[in-house]
Amino acid sequence: MPCIIFDFDGTLADTSRGIINTFQATLDRMGVPEIDESRIKSVIGLPLKQNFTIGAGFSDKQADQAVEIYRELFMGIALKTTTAFPGVVETVKTLYERSIPMAIASSRSRPSLLALSKEIGIGEYIPEDHIFGVESVARPKPAPDLVYAIVARLGVKPEESLVVGDTTFDLEMGRAAGAHTCGVTYGNQTAAQLMGACPDYLIDDLRKLL
Asked: Which of 207, 66, 67, 210 is nearest to 135 (CA)?
């Protein structure tokens, strides 16, 4: 594959605890009772505003307020709990040494992606201009726009790329763009959920990508 496109949360980085804690802290700041963690996990991978409209049932106005508070709180909470999944740094480093271009396609904001990529030890292997966040395109996942933007930057065709992610949103994005897809089962969704999006490959350890 001339190009491998990674999701970030749940694929490269274990951010679920930081996301959940920040989500609950945001609700607390707004005077709203905590919600069940499973509801929060079910929307990880979608744009942040949708996390609150779908996960918490907020109105558009409430969700806009929640997004501002969440972004204010996130780095202070998440940096303490975010780590790379086993084998991630090793795999990304090996792909880098094999001169295989890599990119990140995420529903997270780009500034936090840049900071967290360095925090988990992969920042030196994936160039900053290959890191695409929610603000990089008009339509977020599961629309194919992120894949289109990345392959245009890297000078390859969608069918020459492999999208790797832990949610159906990632796999649907890849399929819609005409890319190959690979689900990882150690993230935020189960193997059964991922199979519903018909991935070309399914792995339980990122090292199996090699």
From this structure: 67
